[in-house]
Amino acid sequence: MRxxxxxxxxxxxxxxxxxxxxxxxFGPARACQPGCHAAxxxxxxxxxxxxxxxxxxxxxRAIEAxxxxxxxxxxxxxxxxxxxxxxGFERPESDVDLMLVIGDDDYAGRLRDGRLQFLxxxxxxxxxxxxxxxxxxxGLLAEIARRGSEPARFAFQDARVLFSRIEGLESTLAAIAxxxxxxxxxxxxxxxxxxxAWHWYAHEALKLGDRYLLGLAVARTVLFGGRMILAHNEIxxxxxxxxxxxxxxxxxxxxxxxxxxxxxxDDPSQANLLRFWxxxxxxxxxxxxxxxxxxxxxxxxxxxWLDGAPPVDDL
Length: 315
Hints:
Blueprint (H helix, E strand, L loop, with lengths): L56 H15 L4 E7 H5 L8 E7 L1 H10 L3 E4 L10 E7 H10 L2 H5 L5 E5 L4 H8 L7 H25 L2 H22 L10 H7 L7 H10 L3 H12 L11 H10 L13
Parallel strand pairs: 2-4
Antiparallel strand pairs: 1-2, 1-5, 3-4
Helix pairs in contact: 4-6, 7-8, 7-11, 7-12, 8-9, 8-11, 10-11
C-alpha cells in the first residue's frame, strides 16, 4: 500500500496506487449484506438526525477513488469508513478516515516496523484534503470485540463497510460496537471514585492557586462525571475529541448539564464545581457498595501499574 507513513505536507495531488510488497490474497470481494458494498458507488447516508442527511460530495468522491484503488490491493481484506464522516461529525474541511483490515501476519510485520498508517491525497480535491487510515489485523478486531476499551469500540460504532473479502466481518463489527453491559455497574462505581477525587483536587487547586492542577482537575471532573452519564445510558465513550458531542446526545442526563460544563470551563469557581458535581451525584441513586472512593481511586490511579504496564503519563 503506497501512501503509508507519508507526511501530509508531502502528499501529491495524484493518486497513490497499491504497493507491491507482501501481498496476501483474501479472495474476491464479496457482498456482506445487500447494498453494504455499494457505498463506494452511491452517496453514503450520514447520521439520520442531521439535516444534511448525505455526506459532502467532495468527501464522497474521495471515498470512491480510494476505495477503488484499495479494492485492487490483495493485501487489504476489508476497507471501513470511520472517523467524523461515519459518526456524523464531519465539517467541509474534514479528512476522510479509513480502517484497512489486513491479515494477521501482515499486521504483525507492519506493527514491528511502524508501518500502520495509510495516507493519500487521491481524489481529495478540497484545499488541504487527504484520506488517512490505520491498518488493523483480523485478530486485533476479535480482541477488541472480546475485551477492547470503550474508545477502541467506539471507533467501529458507525463504521461503514466499503468492501470486504472477510467472512463474518459484520458479526465481529457488531460485537465490537456493543456496549459492555455486564461491566456497567462496576464502571460506574470506578468513575464515581474518580469524580470524587478530582472534584477534591479541583478545590485544593483553588485554595493553592495552582492553575496547572486546576485545569487538570476540572477536565477530569467533567470527564468522569460525563462518563457516569454515558454509562447510565449505555453509550460508549468516544475519547476526548468527540466526548462532549456524544455526551450531548445522551437521552437521559441532568438538565442543563452542557451549560454547566461550559460555565465550569469559563469560570472554574467553587460554586460552579459544586453545581456540576451536585448535578451528577443527585441525578439518580448511583451504584453503591464496593470500596470507599479514596481506596478505589488508589487502586485505579496509584496502584494500576501492579496489574500491567503503567499509562504513558505515569511513566
